[in-house]
Structures are given as structure tokens and as C-alpha cells.
Amino acid sequence: MKQINSNTLLELLQSDVREILLQCTALQNTNQALLTQQPQPGKWSVAQVLEHLNIYARYYITAIEERLHLNQSGPNQNFTPGWLGNYFTNLMKPTGDKHIKSKMKSPANAVPSAQPDAVAMLTEFINHQHHLLNLLQIARTANLDYNRVPISLTKLIKLKLGDTFRFFIAHEQRHFLQIENTLKQVEQNRLSVLSAA
């Protein structure tokens, strides 16, 4: 795998999180009713997507923070992605032209409730993003290759700290593309109802 300067990687990831926070600002200014509407039966509303992301954030932010507290090695100048971490990241990350490469079913423990509170889910998510920005800053003092974080599905598989950040943020980017598409569909549905009235 191709090496990348550790600080450059962390700066890129911080930039990705700031972009997500900008999108959250737009969501804060969106009619709450739109955030709770499903675009189609069986498809998640924006509030449900946010709850799903919060489920992952509760796990990964805690796991990353614990790993950083246990950090006993200094920073490494260059980070080399692991093959599994790279695979997971590429599987999640949307393409440059804003497409999701492959659909996948969420694990049972990450499926959101039927009607989550949109405001509560968005507020929690924004708090997680600010926490994540702080962890990315702290990670400048850690070895992104040596420190490893267990994945949420099983404690037996651990990803390099750098790969954990990459995968976790790619997962958020994937679902923010889903949020964008969901809002477009919900708005289309609303306009169709209005024009039929």
C-alpha cells in the first residue's frame, strides 16, 4: 500500500469532518418534518440515517479515545494503510462523482428505530463530529500504524488507527450522500402531492 504523510492524512480527514459539519448546518435549517419522512416505504428517513451514524459514533469514538489514552508510542512520519483497512475504506467511500459503489445491509445492532427524534439525533451527531475533530488532533502524537482499534462487529479484528479514522469517516460520507438523496426524494414526493391536490 502507498504511504502517506501522517500529518497530511490527519489534515485531510479533519477537512472531511468539517465538510460534514457544514452539511449539518444545512440540516439544522431544514424543516424538521422533512427529516422524519421516509422517501419510500422501507427506506430510512434522514433522522434514521443520523441515528445509524450515532450508533457507530458511540462505539468508534469511545474505542479510538481509549486507544489514544493507552498510546505508548510516538508519532510516525508516514502511515501505510493496511490491506483490510484500505478495503473497508474503499468499500464505504463514495466515488468522486457522488455515487455509492455497493449497497450493503446494516448489522442488526446498527438499525435505527422507526421514528427517532430528528433534532436530538442531529445534535448528538454534531457533538460526535466535534469530538472526532479533537481526536484527530490528538492523533498527531500517536503512531497511526502501531495503535490498533477493534472493529464494531468483532473485537477479534483490529484496524490500524489511521485506517479506523479513514473507514469511520468514509462511512459518514457515504451516509451523507444518502441523506442528500433522501432529501431530494422527500421534496419530490411533497411537490407531487401538492401538484396532485
TrEMBL record:
Highest taxon above the source species: Bacteria
Source taxonomy: Bacteria, Pseudomonadati, Bacteroidota, Chitinophagia, Chitinophagales
Name this polypeptide is given: DinB family protein
Record Pfam families: DinB_2 (PF12867)
InterPro entries: DinB-like, DinB/YfiT-like
Domain DinB-like residue range list: 26-179
